[in-house]
Amino acid sequence: LHEYQVIGRRLPSEQEPAPKLFRMRIFAPNEVVAKSRYWYFLSKLHKAKRANGEIVSVNEIYESNPLKVKNFGVWLRYDSRSGTHNMYKEYRETTRAAAVEACYQDMAARHRARFSSVQIIRVGTVKAADVRRPYIQQLIQPNLKFPLPHRVQRPAKKADRALIIAQRPSTFY
Questions:
Q1: 73-88 confidence digits (pLDDT tens)
Q2: What is the DSSP string of 87-153?
């Protein structure tokens, strides 16, 4: 999934020679889907559609620091089998696009919501002090340690390996 900045407007007319530009940040697998989603959202927000509009530019937005792990908050709405719901979710990822991709996977797994029925309203980084969800709070503790259960010691070379050993291996430390 990629993040695109799509800028478009209505076609110039005699009444409106310089129409207002509308900019959106769209998450999509490619530019074609990004343009399609742009017109889908613009037709809901303003009186404009693809037939009497044009796209001025499409640019991919890259993460400024993609190697640092950050906390992301995702505000979304989705259509379930019973109605439309608003939701806020938190993810711990390296990029905004990865957080939204994790969100789509999460919504598909937990709520059976398809890509077309999920609308991302806003994505923002969340400071560690402002994290709300306990499943993210447990990952931002300063003294976080992961246990290493069942560690099997292996010989340095295959030639040193014994085929049959007299006692069971000790796998805990």
A1: 999 999 999 999 999 9
A2: EEEEEEESSHHHHHHHHHHHHHHHH---GGGEEEEEEEE--GGG---HHHHTTS-TT------SPPP
